[in-house]
Amino acid sequence: FVLTDDDEIFDRIQRVVFPGLTANTNLSRFPWLCVSTADLISFGQDYASTCVANANRLAKELCDEQGIPMFTPHRQKGNGDCKRFTDSHIITMDVRLFGGGATAAKLLERANILTSPIDFPQPAKHATGYGSTTSPGVRLAVQDLTRRGMGAADMAEVARLVADVMHKRHEPEVVKERCIEMRMRFGDEGIRFVH
Hints:
It is built from 7 helices and 3 strands, in the order αααβαββααα. It has helices at residues 7-17, 30-65, 73-76, 101-109, 143-147, 155-166, 172-185, and strands at residues 90-94, 116-118, 137-141. Strands 1-3-2 form a 3-stranded antiparallel beta sheet. The chain is globular, with a radius of gyration of 20 Å.
């Protein structure tokens, strides 16, 4: 969805997307869009900054405490804050040592930890091509963890769960049970940043 009150922007977008990309309006989406918009108006800044803080804490825990390399453009360029891994809710683990992105994503999925393989810039001799089964990374996002009420302090436990799978300290199915237990501690009644 694109919302605007600017007629010029609306006309430009409409010419591009209608009718080829959009041919109908699904009115059942609008109530939920309104709720989401109200949430963002009320809580957007706090929610976004909490997501970024959680993502950076999770990356730090994975990298510094659990020994899982991270793709960190801020650190690689040498001009960023060494405590900062990301400016968003997404972090990228460098999983080349763990069999690559597809292998790591499938292993983590068995533990109820959902990720997706992703490429990132790397020297030409190591490049695998976008979408290849040997993508060097997996990305993790923290927005759902944040919305459920997890904070920076909880990211150490999340990092241990991920690392237990990646380092093969426990079978994914064992970690899955621990993931479920952790998720249950943050039940639906604890949902934050919503009306």
